[in-house]
Design brief:
The chain has 246 residues and is an all-alpha fold. The protein has helices spanning 2-6, 8-42, 61-68, 72-103, 120-123, 125-142, 148-152, 161-169, 172-199, 205-240. Helix 6 crosses helix 9 (172-199) and helix 8 crosses helix 10. The longest helix has 36 residues, at 205-240. It is elongated. The termini are far apart.
Length: 246
C-alpha cells in the first residue's frame, strides 16, 4: 500500500478520490445555501424561531438546512472533511513539487497525452489551490467559527443563519472577495472534475470530450448556487429586509 501511495498513479488516485469527496460536499453546501434564495421567493427568508431545537416547524428552508448541518452525523463528518482537505492539499503540493523538478516549472501533475493540459486552469491548478486555501480561512471565520465551532466548544452559537448571511454579505467588498473566491473554485473544479475521471482510467477520446462538458456543467451549477446565495444576502441586507439579529 505504501508503495502504491508513493507511486505517480497512487498519488493521482488519492488526489482524485479526495477531490471527488470535496466536490460532493460543495454540492451539498451550495444547495443548502441556495435554500436562502428559495426562502426569499416563498416569504420565509429570515424566519428562524429563537430556540435551540433542530427542525422547528415553521422555520425557513435555509434554517432547516443549517439544522441538518448541525446533526450528529455531520459533526462526525467534519473531521473527515478536514482530513480530506488536508490530504487533497498535501498530495497536490507533493505532485506539484515533483512536476516542478521534472519540468522546471510549477504546473499541475503530469497528464496523459490523450488529455493534454492546455487550458489556463490546467496549468495553474497549484496557484488556484493556494488562492482557494487562503480565502477558505476567510470564509471559516465568517460562518464555521460562529456556528459549528461554537457548538463544538459548548458556547452559544448564532441562532439565525439569515442574520449571519446579511452581516457577512451586506458589505459590498466582502461580497466581491467571495465572488473572486467562487471564480477561483470554478476554475479549479472545471479542470479538476474531468481530470479526476481521467486519473482513474476514463481517458479515451470519446469520454474525455463528454467529461469536459460535464465538468463545465457541474462546476457552473455549484458556483451559481454559491453566488446566488451571496448576492441574495447582499440584496436582503441592503435593499429588501429589515436588519436581522443573531
Amino acid at each position: 500500500m505504501a508503495k502504491f501511495l508513493t507511486s505517480s498513479i497512487g498519488k493521482k488516485f488519492v488526489q482524485s478520490i479526495s477531490g471527488a469527496f470535496l466536490i460532493l460536499f460543495l454540492l451539498l453546501h451550495g444547495t443548502i445555501n441556495f435554500f436562502s434564495v428559495i426562502d426569499t421567493f416563498t416569504g420565509k427568508y429570515g424566519i428562524a424561531l429563537p430556540d435551540e431545537k433542530l427542525f422547528t416547524p415553521g422555520d425557513g428552508l435555509f434554517k432547516l438546512g443549517c439544522d441538518f448541518m448541525s446533526t450528529p452525523v455531520i459533526d462526525i463528518m467534519v473531521p473527515i472533511l478536514a482530513l480530506g482537505i488536508l490530504i487533497h492539499i498535501g498530495f497536490g503540493i507533493w505532485l506539484s513539487v515533483e512536476n516542478y523538478r521534472k519540468r522546471g516549472g510549477v504546473k499541475r501533475y503530469e497528464v496523459a497525452s490523450k488529455a493534454k493540459a492546455d487550458s489556463w486552469s490546467a496549468k495553474n491548478m497549484f496557484v488556484l489551490g493556494l488562492v482557494i486555501l487562503g480565502l477558505l480561512f476567510f470564509h471559516l471565520s465568517h460562518f464555521w467559527a460562529k456556528m459549528q465551532l461554537q457548538e463544538f466548544m459548548g458556547a452559544e452559537a448564532a441562532n439565525n443563519p439569515y442574520a449571519l448571511l446579511n452581516q457577512t454579505f451586506g458589505n459590498i467588498w466582502v461580497l466581491l472577495i467571495y465572488i473572486v473566491w467562487f471564480v477561483a473554485i470554478w476554475l479549479h473544479l472545471n479542470h479538476g472534475f474531468w481530470s479526476m475521471f481521467q486519473s482513474i482510467g476514463w481517458n479515451n477520446k470519446i469520454w474525455l470530450k463528454r467529461l469536459k462538458v460535464i465538468s463545465v456543467v457541474v462546476s457552473t451549477i455549484i458556483i451559481i448556487l454559491f453566488v446566488a446565495a451571496a448576492v441574495n444576502g447582499y440584496l436582503q441586507a441592503n435593499f429588501i429586509k429589515a436588519p436581522l439579529t443573531l
